[in-house]
Specification:
This protein is mainly α. The chain has helices at residues 2-16, 20-27, 32-38, 43-58, 63-81, 95-114, 120-123, 128-140, 148-157, 160-174, 177-184, 190-203, 213-223, 237-251, 256-283, 289-320, 325-351. The chain is globular. The protein binds fe (ii) ion (FE2) (2 copies).
Length: 354
C-alpha cells in the first residue's frame, strides 16, 4: 500500500514540475505491471507531458529538450536489449512505457523525414541493378561522405583527448553493432538471412572470443584509459540520436526496409573513415596492435560487408519487392543525415578547443 501511495505522490510531483526525465527514471526502475496498474488513470497526463517536451524539442528546437528526449529514449531502449538481473524489477512490457516510446519515435522519425528533399522520390530507381549504382552515388555525393572531421581534423589535428572524446561518442553504435545485426535479421530467410549471419559471424570474430568486434572495441577503449560507465553524461544529443536510430531500425519488423538501407550506408562509409582514425592514433603514438586493431580490421572487412550487403541483401529484397526502394532509401538518408549532424557537432566541439 505504501509503495502505491509513494509512487502516486512521486508521479504527481514530477508531473507538476514537468520533470519528464525524473519521471522516466522513476518508472523504468519498476515492474511493468505496477506501472500500468498504479498509473493507469494518469496515462493521459503523462503522455501530454511527453508531447509537450517533444514539441519543445522538435517544433521549437530547444536543445536541452532534445537532449532530454534522446536520453529518455536511450533508457527505454535499454529495457529491450539489456538482460536484467534475475530478481530485478523490469518495465520492458509496460504499455505506458510503450506509449511514451511510440510518441517519442513518432516525433523523431517525422523530424528525419523533414530533412529528406522531396525531389529525391522522382529519382529513385525501382529496379535493383540501377538502384545499387544510384545508392552508391547518393552516398558518395552526400556531404558526410568526405566529412572534414575525418578527412582533416582526425587525420591532422586530433589530440589524444579528442580521440577519447570521439571514442566515447562512437560507443553508442560500436559497443552493440552485433546486437543490431542480430535484431535486424529476425524474420528474414534464404540468402538475405545468410548474408546478415555471415556479417554477424565476422562481428563474432569468426568464433574467436578475443576477436569479437565488441571485444576489440573494448580493448581500444581500455588502452586509451576510457571507462564508459563513467561517461554516460558525456554523450552528445547527436551521438544518442545515432545509437537510438540504429536500435529503432533493427528492433522493429516494420522498419526492416529502412534498416537495411541504413546499415548499407553505415558499412559503406566505414573503411574510408577508419583510415583517418588510424592516422590519429599513429600521430598520438597510440597505434600499437591492440589500440588500432579494431580500426584496421574494419578497413578491410567493411569494404567486403558493404559490397556483399548490396549484392545479397539490397538486390534480392528489391527484386522481390520493387517498392521497397523507397523505405530502403529513407533508411539510407536517415543514416547520412544523422551521421552528418553528429560529425558536425563533434567537429565544432573539438575545433573550438584548439
Ligand atoms: Fe564490426
Ligand atoms: Fe561491418
Amino acid at each position: 500500500m505504501n509503495f502505491i501511495k509513494n509512487l502516486d505522490i512521486d508521479t504527481e510531483k514530477l508531473l507538476e514540475a514537468k520533470d519528464l526525465s525524473g519521471l522516466i527514471d522513476r518508472l523504468i526502475s519498476l515492474e511493468a505491471q505496477d506501472i500500468d496498474t498504479i498509473l493507469f488513470d494518469r496515462q493521459a497526463k503523462i503522455l501530454a507531458l511527453v508531447e509537450e517536451v517533444c514539441q519543445q524539442a522538435y517544433k521549437y528546437n530547444r536543445q536541452p529538450s532534445l537532449l532530454a528526449i534522446q536520453n529518455i529514449l536511450a533508457k527505454i531502449y535499454e529495457l529491450h536489449y539489456r538482460i536484467p538481473n534475475p530478481q530485478q524489477e523490469n518495465a520492458e512490457s509496460s504499455f505506458i512505457i510503450a506509449s511514451i516510446r511510440n510518441l517519442i519515435e513518432k516525433f523523431f522519425l517525422e523530424d528525419e523525414e523533414k530533412a529528406i528533399p522531396a525531389s529525391i522520390w522522382q529519382e529513385v530507381p525501382e529496379n535493383s541493378a540501377n538502384y545499387v549504382d544510384w545508392f552508391i552515388s547518393l552516398t558518395e555525393n552526400h556531404p558526410v561522405y568526405r566529412h572534414s572531421l575525418y578527412e582533416d581534423y582526425l587525420k591532422n589535428h586530433a589530440s589524444l583527448d579528442d580521440l577519447r572524446q570521439f571514442l566515447i561518442q562512437e560507443s553508442t553504435i560500436d559497443t552493440r553493432f552485433d546486437d543490431f545485426l542480430a535484431l535486424l535479421q529476425v524474420g528474414t530467410d534464404g540468402g538475405v538471412k545468410l548474408e546478415i549471419a555471415s556479417n554477424y559471424w565476422d562481428e563474432m570474430g569468426n568464433g574467436n572470443i578475443s576477436q569479437m568486434h565488441v571485444a576489440m572495441f573494448s580493448r581500444t577503449l581500455n588502452n586509451l584509459e576510457i571507462d564508459l560507465t563513467k561517461c554516460k553524461n558525456y554523450l552528445t544529443t547527436e551521438a544518442l540520436i545515432c545509437g537510438n536510430l540504429s536500435l529503432m531500425l533493427s528492433l522493429y519488423r516494420k522498419h526492416f526496409y529502412k534498416g537495411i538501407g541504413y546499415f548499407a550506408v553505415t558499412e559503406y562509409m566505414t573503411p574510408k573513415r577508419f583510415k583517418h582514425i588510424i592516422y590519429a592514433l599513429k600521430r598520438n603514438k597510440r597505434n600499437n596492435f591492440s589500440e588500432a586493431e579494431y580500426y584496421k580490421e574494419h578497413i578491410t572487412i567493411d569494404a567486403l560487408h558493404a559490397q556483399n550487403w548490396l549484392k545479397n541483401v539490397i538486390v534480392p529484397v528489391i527484386n522481390k519487392y520493387p517498392s521497397s526502394v523507397y523505405e530502403i532509401t529513407r533508411g539510407a538518408i536517415y543514416r547520412l543525415n544523422t551521421s552528418q549532424k553528429y560529425l558536425n557537432s563533434l567537429l565544432t566541439k573539438m575545433a573550438s578547443l584548439v
